[in-house]
Design a protein that fits this description.
heterodimer, A: 271 residues, mainly alpha, globular, B: 283 residues, MetI-like fold, 73% helix
Chain lengths: 271, 283
């Protein structure tokens, strides 16, 4: 009885709150179909012309392309570097290990604006012109700690004996790494890559400082916010990206939990 | 030894990368605080003038404390609002946890800038809030209620962080051994007592983790104030951004960044004494 009441309070809180979280997003989708340039109420009728204009806007499509290419490359780099570090940190003890982990995790606890400023100074001192590459390097730095944490969690959960068994049976260290360790870490690496990509794709604070003449999508969106006539197209782009992100999240969650299911049910199934 | 070679191969590239693109930039930033000239162009100069200028203008530090305070409020609000959500998914749902968690997280992964824009649409004149109030006859003409204020910044940021904050709280609630709660109930402990004396203390790592997930980015925030804050909603991050992208006083901007970095690191150091960061990863 008491439990039932608590459940229903919690249930309604969850439903109402989640609805509130989605309301602003739905609002954008509604405006993407609204036949008026100003994003105000009352609505003016249904149209799909913004979708047509969006596809024809070469700058917008270009910025999406920049974001995708830069996001994929920087996430790949972060995944490779982070995984190497995770294997080293989890499997070996060496001097400076604690220091390395502390430094690698630091981007998590530093406001991006500070990191942006520091990297801007570095590039200006080295006379490296700002571009998508400099933004990408920044994104590698912010994504390494995420990859390190996700992959290390997977490696810690994995039995070390498997690797030892492979080596006892005559495999060299590097082939063991390639054929035992990496396949086991792979779901975590995919999840880490996808997490990195979504972070990079949406990242603005750092990109705003480090971007060159070619904008990423968030930088482009920001530049368009000043022009009310461009807002409907931006909002439309947002709606498309939201749907795409949803698909990607669902996929990434699926990957993240694939392979770790047995461990989960064991802990939950305890009497 | 064999191991040393393996460690060198595995750790070398990430360590060098972090050294050149993370540690070195922060070191350069520290050096810049002693330089002179608008871009810090005068390399040969070593001066403490920038520090004097920073400390002589009390509005800088006042804004830093104010932004720290706002970050505290936003993070505390996010935790308070996200906790019941995480609790519901962890304890009341059963097998559909992953689905509900995904539903909760999806808004967090949709464009951050556009979620802020959405709040501008809600709070602005002719926005949702205004239209409702007009229709109800509560106001006579459209005015931007709340927009361009610190309250607007607080609401928007809390909205942005709630899903991120719910995740670590959920992870720590998941880790609580259910038999402890059953034992408490068997021994006659009321549900609220069990919550206060078992569940809440055991979920503190997640609560603190979530708090900092919201706190750090809010501390450095400069975009939300630009979009919904207006003149009254300026934060310390805007000050830094101004020095670099408009004022072009890079040495002063470096000091401002360094001051913010110190605030973040000091609070983090206090935090790490309480929780291990690795506890925050789900799994």
């Amino acid at each position: 009885m008491r439990r039932g009441k608590l459940t229903s309070f919690n249930f309604w809180y969850f439903v109402l709150f989640t609805a509130a979280l989605y309301l602003p997003i739905l609002l954008l989708i509604v405006f993407s179909f609204n036949d008026a340039q100003a994003l105000i109420f009352p609505l003016q009728g249904f149209t799909t012309r913004w979708y047509g204009e969006m596809v024809r806007s070469t700058e917008l499509v270009g910025s999406v392309w920049h974001s995708i290419v830069m996001g994929v490359l920087s996430s790949l780099a972060a995944t490779i570097l982070g995984t190497m570090a995770a294997i080293g940190v989890v499997r070996y003890k060496f001097p400076g290990r604690g220091l390395f982990v502390a430094v690698a995790a630091m981007p998590l606890v530093i406001p991006y604006v500070v990191l942006a400023v520091a990297m801007l100074l570095l590039f200006s001192q080295l006379n490296i012109p700002l571009s998508l590459w400099t933004v990408g390097l920044g994104h590698v730095i912010i994504n390494i700690p995420l990859v390190l944490l996700i992959v290390a969690a997977r490696l810690i959960g994995m039995e070390k004996n498997l690797e030892e068994a492979a080596m006892d049976l005559g495999a060299t260290y590097w082939s063991t790494l390639l054929r035992v360790t990496l396949p086991i870490a792979f779901p975590a690496m995919v999840a880490a890559f996808l997490t990195s990509f979504t972070t990079s794709f949406d990242e603005f604070a750092l990109a705003f400082f480090l971007i060159g003449p070619e904008p990423t999508l968030p930088v482009y969106i920001y530049s368009q916010l000043r022009f009310p006539s461009r807002l409907p197209i931006v909002v439309t782009m947002a709606s498309v990206i939201m749907v795409a992100s949803v698909l990607m999240i669902v996929f990434s969650e699926y990957v993240r939990h694939w392979g770790s299911a047995p461990a989960r049910s064991r802990s939950e199934g305890a009497p | 030894m064999e191991n040393r070679k393996r460690i060198a191969v595995l750790m070398g590239p990430p360590a060098l990368f972090l050294l050149f693109l993370f540690v070195l930039p922060l070191a350069i930033m520290a050096v810049f605080t002693f330089r002179a000239g608008s871009f810090g162009a005068q390399r040969e100069v070593f001066t403490l003038d920038n520090y004097r200028e920073f400390l002589a203008n009390p509005s800088y530090l006042r804004l830093l404390w104010r932004s720290t305070g706002i970050a505290f409020i936003v993070s505390a609000l996010s935790v308070a609002l996200a906790y019941p959500l995480a609790y519901f998914i962890a304890f009341r749902v059963g097998s559909r946890k992953v689905i509900l968690l995904t539903i909760l997280v999806i808004p967090a992964w949709t464009s951050y800038l556009l979620r802020i824009l959405a709040w501008r649409l809600i709070l602005g004149s002719n926005g949702v809030l205004n239209s409702i109030l007009l229709a109800l006859g509560l106001i006579d003409e459209a005015t931007p209620i709340l927009l361009y204020s610190m309250t607007a910044v607080t609401i928007t940021l809390t909205y942005v962080w709630i899903p991120f904050v719910a995740l670590p709280i959920f992870a720590s609630l998941e880790r609580i051994n259910r038999s402890v709660l059953e034992a408490a109930a068997d021994l006659g402990c009321a549900p609220w007592q069990a919550f206060l004396r078992i569940t809440l203390p055991l979920s503190m790592p997640g609560v603190l983790g979530g708090f900092f997930f919201a706190f750090i980015p809010t501390l450095g925030e400069y975009v939300t104030p630009l979009l919904v804050g207006g003149a009254k909603g300026v934060m310390y991050g805007n000050l830094i951004q101004d020095q670099f992208l408009r004022g072009l006083n890079w040495p002063l901007g470096s000091i401002m960044s360094l001051a913010m970095l110190l605030v973040a690191l000091v609070l983090m150091a206090l935090f790490v004494r309480v929780v291990r960061v690795s506890d925050l990863v789900e799994g």
